[in-house]
Design brief:
Length: about 100
Amino acid sequence: MSEFKKHDEGKAQLSFLPLGPLSKIAEVLEFGAKKYSRSNWRKGCNHNRYMDAALRHLLSHNEGEDLDPESGLTHLAHAGCCILFLIELQKTHPELDYRENSLE
């Protein structure tokens, strides 16, 4: 019998990702899909809008408010969702990146 081989060296080991927090971010995505539409964010918008939203959620969390009053989901999951959007939008919509230093 031949030895098992799998050529996955250098590929991301997604099993390192913590599934609990990822499921909370998925709940935020589900809430957003009901409010706007599924994958509405993929259409792109000024990246500052997601940066602002992430910072608002982080500040609310820092001030002791755990849950977003509208969704009932954690501010940290909302912020994480915004950050994931920003990572993807940098690749898919770089023309909408309006950070001050991106204009130089």
